[in-house]
């Protein structure tokens, strides 16, 4: 394609380091779409005669069929998908094929192809994240009143409900989806027609190609058009944050399914056994979701580092945007699917959760709040009194509710036996009715609101 100035071909190693066809062949559908839009515009603008346009169009469709049908021969010496498609097009339609690349460069072509791929992928991730939200909101509704321990520092803090915990992830996923959509909106300007870097002297209609490919408008600066990989970085950044959310939940599932916690059961479908230890049910899917977050973050970091030293406009370094972006966004898609399956099948164990919720003096804050509310103690003093009571109970190895009234009154004489009501975990969660709080009625209402929002799309 560019042999005119060269007396001999590339070294074997040059070909190996240069070729991207091994991984960019997945851009074939986007590449052909872009070429179809480009050639139609060249025809409409009177740059190419109608006969050539028709020949190129039918040739491109034939190439697309060969690729779909698996009969297309990808050859490393043709470097990348752009040259591979054009070379085959030349074989099929002859010299007219040589006119397709008028007013275009691989630089604007590859930027367009990648944007189309990332855009479709972001749409898919958004839909998958919505599925996971739905699974979580359904679980939340079913367990709006299932009491469990809430943690800070992984130490028992205050009782919450299982549904409340699920809805925390629904909120995180809502922000993730917002980032996917935001990235999509910013991405949606078409680089095609920027040519190599400076634009072109042909009277092309960039608005027409932008529109044909579903972009909102053409990019405004030809240098920026071919030098920009922000769209991939943004998609990877949004994907990384989402992957981190999934990883945190995966970590909780790993901990919760251990024999020591026993908070939840994963289904057979999402666990594996051990070849030596017959008792094992390993949470491999959750562990892999946790691990794959590393790949996604790695891809973001890798591409940031590729881009950071590049002068304008295009440099071949930018070809390295692909493998990491493809791999990371696919990995996230798989993680979302696996997480959705795990959540659908997930069974919390209410007895274990309730028992755990009551241990670790998780209702100490309720006791302190009672002293404030009923006796008018300043909160700091109530905190101090409660601390003494927790110390006394811990010394005897019992819960706060096991202290006698006399023992309670030794710390604060005005305490009455009405205080026992707030020491239970059910009362504790039921009292948390502040907006966004864990009271079962709140959780039920939030879960229902999410489910109707999600079914509205
Ligand atoms: N395969 C290349 C890439 O992915 C296409 C652009 C090549 N452009 C060039 N001037 N060598 O970046």
UniProtKB/TrEMBL annotation:
Residues 6-298 form the Fumarate lyase N-terminal domain. Its EC number is 4.3.2.1. GO terms for molecular function: lyase activity. It catalyses: 2-(N(omega)-L-arginino)succinate = fumarate + L-arginine. Keywords: Amino-acid biosynthesis, Arginine biosynthesis, Cytoplasm, Lyase. Pathway: Amino-acid biosynthesis; L-arginine biosynthesis; L-arginine from L-ornithine and carbamoyl phosphate: step 3/3. InterPro entries: Arg_succ_lyase_C, Argininosuccinate_lyase, Fumarase/histidase_N, Fumarate_lyase_CS, Fumarate_lyase_fam, Fumarate_lyase_N, L-Aspartase-like. Residues 361-430 form the Argininosuccinate lyase C-terminal domain. Its main location: cytoplasm. Gene3D superfamilies: Fumarase/aspartase (C-terminal domain) (1.10.40.30), Fumarase/aspartase (Central domain) (1.20.200.10), Fumarase/aspartase (N-terminal domain) (1.10.275.10). It is found in: Cytoplasm. The keyword Cytoplasm applies. CDD domains: Argininosuccinate_lyase (cd01359). Belongs to the lyase 1 family. Argininosuccinate lyase subfamily. This is Argininosuccinate lyase. It comes from Methylobacterium iners.
